[in-house]
Amino acid sequence: MISPTIKQCVILAGGFGSRLSEETQLKPKPMVEVNGKPILLRIMRHYSKFGVSEFIILAGYKADYIKKYFRDYYLEQNDIEVDLSSGKVNYLKKSDTPWKVTIVDTGFNTMTGGRLKRVQDMLDPIFHFTYGDGVGNVDIDSLIKSHLTSEKIGTITAVQPSGRFGALDIDESNTVTEFNEKPKGDGAWVNAGFMLLKSEVCDYIDDDTTVFENESLPLLVNKCELNAYFHRGFWQPMDTLRDKHALDEYFRILES
Question: Is 110 within a domain?
Fold first, then answer.
């Protein structure tokens, strides 16, 4: 069975990014560059590999920065010819990025659920929903198949994040027998974003003050309407400067 393509992706991009203040004083967190490109763009390019072509960006903090970036994206990606006598601009090649990008300022202090509720009228019956500060090599086709098979309102991608510190195995004589630089934390599964939702999920959001993770998702759990898709590959959020440096290195190696 080949899962149908779900073309719409909604991305949360309105938070403050206070733990990454070295970068976010000047730009919103999703626009912080990872090896030369905004992490938001890297997330969009990953989805695009699986046929996603319509993006709704839920902006808030420094929303104008995101609007200006995509307003100028076509210009920066193409060679141009300018007729200085008339001011007419001719693009010498067409963009190879066939996306429709909608940026909505969903409010400075609006919570995650409230941001989604504000674009309720724009949503497809089923849509992707993720965070603008976490990347991973999630198999979107398999995610879609899992969601459709479950027949539930929502699906979240579950991952086991690496621990922050190296783990030691030590035998009875105090000899270190193994050193694991990046252990899988305490083994717990966490929500990595990369969600699929039916539009009726908005019925589980009250208003701007609703925190999607703390209020809407537990309601889905109580109704047995939340499916989990397990991802065991690469995933990395960008919460701190240390995370940014790790992502810089990951993409530097990947693209070298």
Answer: yes
Query: Count of domains in the chain?
Result: 1
CA gap 141, 146 in Å, rounded: 9
Measuring CA to CA, how many Å separate 69 from each of 30, 64, 73, 101, 170? 12, 8, 6, 11, 51
The pLDDT tens digits of the residues spanning 157-174 come to 999 887 655 555 655 664
Q: 39 with 84: CB under 8 angstroms?
A: no
8-state DSSP, 214: I
| Residue 28 structural domain | 8-159+188-254
Distance CA 10, CA 12 (A): 7
Selection from 6, 95, 17 nearest residue 55 by Cα? 6
137 within a domain of the structure (yes/no): yes
Nearest to 15 by CA among 80, 63, 85: 63
Interval 236-242 mean pLDDT = 93
The predicted model gives 192-200 an average pLDDT of 97
Tell me whether residue 167 is in a domain: no
| Other beta carbons within 10 Å of 71 | 12
pLDDT digits over 13-23, tens only? 998 888 888 88
CATH of the domain at 198: 3.90.550.10
In the beta sheet, which residues pair with residue 66?
none
Note whether residue 118 is domain-resident.
yes
Length of the chain: 256
Q: Yes or no: say if 45 and 148 are a contact pair by the CB < 8 Å rule.
A: no
